[in-house]
Amino acid sequence: MNNAKGCSPRSILEVGEVFVAGGMPTITYNPRSQLNLEGQLRDAIKRLNKIILVVGATKSGKTVLVRRVLPLDEAIWVEGGAIREEGDFWQEIVNQLGISLETSTTIGESAENGTQNEGSAGIKPFGIGAEGKRTASSKDSTTRQDGFKRVETARSASLRVLKERKLTLVVDDFHYMTRELQSSIVRALKQPVFDRLKVVLLAVPHRVADAVKAESEIEGRVASVAVPDWHNPELVDIANSGFDALNVDVDAVEVQHLVDGAFSSPHLLQDLCSLLCKLGNVEETVQSSVALTPPKPLDILFKELASHMQPTAFSRIKKGPDRTNRLERALRNGSGSCDIYEAVLYSIIETGPASVVTYNELSAKIKEVLQPSAVPQQHEVTRVLEQMAKLAAEVGGAVPPLDYDKDLKVMHITDPFFRFYLKWGVERTWA
Predict the structure, then answer these.
(1) DSSP labels, 308-377
(2) What is the number of alpha carbons within 13 Å of residue 129 lying toward its C-beta?
(3) What distance in Å separates the CA atoms of residue 355 and residue 412, rounded to the nearest whole number?
(4) What is the DSSP string of 141-180?
(5) Tell me, what's the pLDDT at 210?
(6) At residue 412, does pLDDT exceed 80?
(7) Locations of Polar residues compositional bias (predicted)?
């Protein structure tokens, strides 16, 4: 990768400009051209008088995709996670538009009052005739102005100005809003969308139906653009484009290991690549190509990143509901004991942790974690899974890091960062 003699030097880029974790990447942006996601979204916005739903897993690149198609000067963005009431939603749009809800009107009236005075001047013109008279007149002008203020609602002003300025309304993390709030907003947007207002809502797959169900009449006025899960070659392209921009060599096998550890998340991969550069003392583009070797074992890199994560949901789930009489269960490795919440959590981790864990898979892992005499019964495990999901929802909001489907007996771990922390940030005292 060395520059040939006579070639101009490389542009110097800082690592943070190349591997943009949690931001808007440029160098490492992968448009996934074969999927034509940008084209689908652009066509839907321009052609359809419908609410556009952009659907994809947590941290799958939905926001980055929409930002590429809709620059900030063409859209108003509202963060769904920051909205608690409908009034807050419309006021946020008003604030971003920089408009006032008050308009002043003035009505004026004017009147004139006149007076006339006569008097002798004491002079005879040309020495003949009567005395000359001087007439003086004066006028007093009076003006009265009455004013009143007209106040427009935030909702009315927002919708009016969005259409006047031809701006698209984008609601990121729409799923974070309550069902009632979703319903109110969708209902308010139905007619404006019919009148050519452009609206884009971003949501996760298992919440995609909420926007439709929120208002039954909107069902035929919604179009979806799906952001599929990332495949390994797509993530490899992200890593390679970044390393190339920094003029560093990373072995293809090591790049694949980084991708494998990213749990299909481009966001997480950007973090890992950035941290690798930091550990290798690469702060910016180097002019002479250098080899960047990940630490051995690669676990060191993963654990370093996990050490900076502090998911609140983990401690709540591990602890479980407040109880004082919880039974201690002996670990199979003889190192001590744990309660049932810890045992179930450790068993989930032992699955990979996988993004989807069935009860049968979990049950098998519990038997590997605990002594045979300490293994809980099925109804006890099911109760714990339900409680874990409830605690995660209390901490994680509308999209908790894990969720349990009691009908299918399946645990979903929806957040790749939470999976990563479970794998690399938790000390394996039970193994």
Answers:
(1) T---HHHHHHHH-S--S-PPPEEBTTSS-EE-HHHHHHHHHHHT---SEEEHHHHHHHHHHHB-GGGPPP
(2) 7
(3) 6
(4) EEEEEEEEEEE--HHHHHHHHHHHTTPEEEEETGGGS-HH
(5) 62
(6) yes
(7) 109-119
- Give CA–CA dist 24/42, Å, rounded: 18
Whether 251 and 187 map to the same domain: the answer is no
**pLDDT higher at 249 or 6:** 249
The sign of the dihedral angle between the CA atoms of 277, 279, 284, 287 is negative
Lookup result for tokens 């949501």: 203
Which residues have C-beta within 8 Å of that of residue 109, sequence separation ≥ 6? 143, 144, 145, 146
Cα 309–chain centre separation: 18
- Residue pair 158/90 in contact by the 8 Å Cβ criterion: yes
The answer as to whether 287 is a domain residue is: yes
Q: How far apart are CA 54 and CA 62, in angstroms?
A: 7
pLDDT in tens, 364-380: 999 999 999 999 999 99
Of 145, 160, 36, the C-alpha closest to 97 is 160
Q: How would DSSP label each residue in 212-273? A: HHTSGGGGGGEEEEEEPPPPHHHHHHHHHHHHHHHTEE--HHHHHHHHHTTTT-HHHHHHHH
Does residue 399 contact residue 392 with C-beta atoms inside 8 Å? no
Angle at 389 between CA 386 and CA 390, to 5 degrees: 85
Q: State the average pLDDT over residues 372-391.
A: 95
User: Could you give the number of structural domains in the chain?
Assistant: 3
Beta strands 102-120 and 133-151, pairing class:
antiparallel
CB 311 within 8 A of CB 417: yes
CA–CA dist 67, 279 (Å, integer): 31
Let me know whether 208 and 329 are in one domain: no
Q: Which domain holds residue 302?
A: 242-306
Dmax (CA) for the chain in angstroms is 143
Amino acid letter for position 377: Q
- State how far the Cα of 203 lies from the Cα of 185, in Å rounded to an integer: 15
Query: What is the mean predicted confidence (pLDDT) over 312-324?
Result: 86
Asked whether residue 371 is domain-assigned, the answer is: yes
Number of other residues whose CB lies within 10 A of the CB of residue 305: 21
